[in-house]
Amino acid sequence: MVNNTQVSETSLAREIFGPLGGIVEIGAIVDAGENTALAHVSVDEFTTRNHPELSQILRTVQTIGNFHSSTMAIVEELGWHSDHEITAPSLLLWSGGIEEYSSDLDNPQSVRRMVSAGADLQLVHFTHAMVGAAVAAGQPVDASSELIVEAMRRAAGLVGAENGGAAREIYRMWRASLLPQVLMPASASPNSVKTGYRSFAHALESML
Question: Could you give the dihedral angle defined by the CA atoms of residues 41, 43, 48 and 53, in that order, rounded to the nearest 10 degrees?
Answer without folding.
Answer: 110
